[in-house]
Prior knowledge:
The protein is α/β, with parallel strands linked by helices. It folds into three domains: 7-14 and 140-203, FAD/NAD(P)-binding domain (3-Layer(bba) Sandwich), CATH 3.50.50; 17-137, FAD/NAD(P)-binding domain, CATH 3.50.50; 223-331, Enolase-like, domain 1. The chain is 26% helix and 26% strand. The chain has ten helices and 19 strands. The relative contact order is 0.12. The mean pLDDT is 96.
Amino acid sequence: MHEAKHIILATGARSKELPSLKIDGKKVIGYRQAMVLPEQPKSMIIVGSGAIGVEFAYFYNSIGTKVTIVEFLPRIVPVEDEDISKELGKVYKKKGIDVLTSSEVTSVDTSGNGVKAKVKTSDGEITLEADVVLSAVGVVANIENIGLEDLSVKTERGKIAVDKYYQTSVPGIYAIGDCAPGQALAHVASKEGIICVEQIAFTEKKYKHQPEPLDYNNVPGCTYCSPEVASVGYTEKAAKEAGYEIKVGKFPLSASGKASAAGATEGFIKVIFDAKYGEWLGSHMIGYNVTELIAETVLGRKLETTYQEVLDAIHPHPTISESVKDAIEVAYGEAIHL
């Protein structure tokens, strides 16, 4: 039993299990086991192609494991912009990674030396064999057996319901991170924790400024595969669905001097702007070191920067970062490096 005036729940999450894919920690594993396997598997089936799935696909492929990705949706990294999905799919196929989209693992047989997975595809059912299956279909919040029901703390869709300052339905109890709604990312959990504590201090008059609630549409996502993927804000499809008239610019890293010098010309920088006001709606990047570039978009969007202000800011040469400016020039018909 713990008593306190304020209690913050940060219980995290674990690998999600599908009914047809029960994790045993040996032949069917989650992401934690994938980081500490006692020996390298010769072959691996990865179910799910979000960040966890494509990161481990890259890693195991790079050390010589035969990797097959099975994705239920029509494209890999399905939360990313469609152009990113297409590019990563092409690169992975070049690397020798088999990618099955619009496919579903219906059952797994672990009775033999390896694993046999029945997969329903658009062309019919097939059977895949491998040493191990990695379940990378997402995470589920750790909210069981912590007393939520005893205190009538409200939950919604498997997570703890909170307000914009992370207070639950019970005053004095808060929830942050993967057990609360929002992106399951370390930097999100960290920011949520800071906002939560600052709000508590503000209400108790121990902090002068009320914190600003987190804008979840300006949270950067980074995927550490190779090539890297980074994104923030609206995808092209989402911007159109939100009613924006948009300007889109794409700059291939094959035209970047720094990328050429680094021998890493795969990928591109894609930017999306509101055509009416020049507002920076989103950026989507795939390529060398792009996880280091996405913060420029986050900061620009936070400061309500327009396209012209970014074009007026000098970007150093030769760098990958100048490709962001180049992409904006493409969007507005001012490109000089293509």
